[in-house]
Amino acid sequence: MRQTYGGDSLNTATYLARVAPPDAVRVHYLTALGDDPLSRGMKARWQADGIDTRYVLTDPARQPGLYLIQLDAAGERTFLYWRNQSAARYLLQHPDWPQLDAALAHFDAIYLSGISLAILPPADRERLTDRLAACAAQGVQILFDGNYRPALWQNRSETRAAYARLLPHVHLALMTDDDERALWDDADIEATIARLQTAGVKNIIIKRGAEGALYAAGDERIAVAGERVARVIDTTSAGDAFNAGYLARYLQGAEPVACCRAGNHLAAIVIQHKGAIIPAEYCRLEA
Question: Is residue 101 annotated as part of the catalytic site, yes or no?
Answer without folding.
Answer: no
